[in-house]
Amino acid sequence: MIELRTPAEIEQMRPAGRFVADVLARTAAAARVGTNLLELDRIAHDLIRSAGAVSSYLDYHPSFGASPFGKVICTSVNDAVLHGLPHDYRLRDGDLLSLDFAAAVDGWVADSAISMVVGEARDEDLRLIETTRRALTAGIDAAQPGGRVGDISAAIAAVAHAEGYSINTQFGGHGVGRTMHGDPHVPNDGRAGRGFPLRPGLVIAIEPWFLETTDEIFTDPDGWTLRSADGSRGAHSEHTIAITDGDAIVLTARDA
Question: pTM here?
Answer without folding.
Answer: 0.97
